[in-house]
Amino acid sequence: MSKQIALLRGINISGHNKIPMARLREVLTERGYGNVTTYVASGNIVFDDPGTVPEKTAVAVAAAIEEEFGLRIPVVVRTRDEIARLVRDNPLPEGPAEPARFLAVFLSAEPHGTWFQQDDPALYEPDRYAMGDRVVYVWCPNGLGTSKLAAKFANRKLAITATARNWNTVLKLLELADE
Q1: What is the pLDDT along the chain (179 residues), one digit of tens a residue?
Q2: 101 with 144, same domain?
């Protein structure tokens, strides 16, 4: 059976938006999702494809979280095949060599007129970024903590939902979806 992966934005960070993963797995299982698995407490959920398009699954998962935990959490959902394609089509081949410094910023929709589409990439060197299908690949060779580029993606300056995962997490989610 095919899998979907839900990526929650901004949970379990510094005591804010606390969601226990065990209870989240139970909530989604109660709502009919099969073989629900979570990976780390930052909101990565793999489950059997419920037969709905990922955008509708995202709305349903967000509604379940709001109903159970009283939190409005943005959710982005991708299929297993979309994650595999994202890995295969990576336009920044130097990134995976340093997976903790390489991000996939998942977008809820295609962006239009955003800062990263208009800015000169040279402003962020040595950091680099490239667009994919509803994803921005971000490589920060000097680390994420001091990166102006990584900070801009964290500032919520987009009109769409964006949530980032490092490359190690992306690969682990694909592995979980393949089990």
Answers
A1: 799 999 998 888 777 888 999 999 999 999 999 999 999 988 999 999 889 999 999 999 999 999 999 999 999 999 999 999 999 999 999 999 989 999 999 999 888 888 788 888 888 999 999 999 999 999 999 998 888 888 777 656 677 888 999 999 999 999 999 98
A2: yes
Query: Are 32 and 73 within one domain?
Result: yes
Residues 120 and 77 in one domain: no
Residue 97 and residue 74 share a domain: no
Give the range of the structural domain holding residue 47, as residue numbers without chain letter.
3-81
Task: Report the 3 state secondary structure along the chain.
Answer: CCEEEEEECCCCECCECCCCHHHHHHHHHHCCCCCCEEECCCCEEEEECCCCCHHHHHHHHHHHHHHHHCCCCCEEEEEHHHHHHHHHCCCCCCHHHCHHHEEEEEECCCCCCCHHHHCCHHHHCCCEEEECCCEEEEECCCCCCCCHHHHHHHCCCCCCCEEEEEHHHHHHHHHHHHC
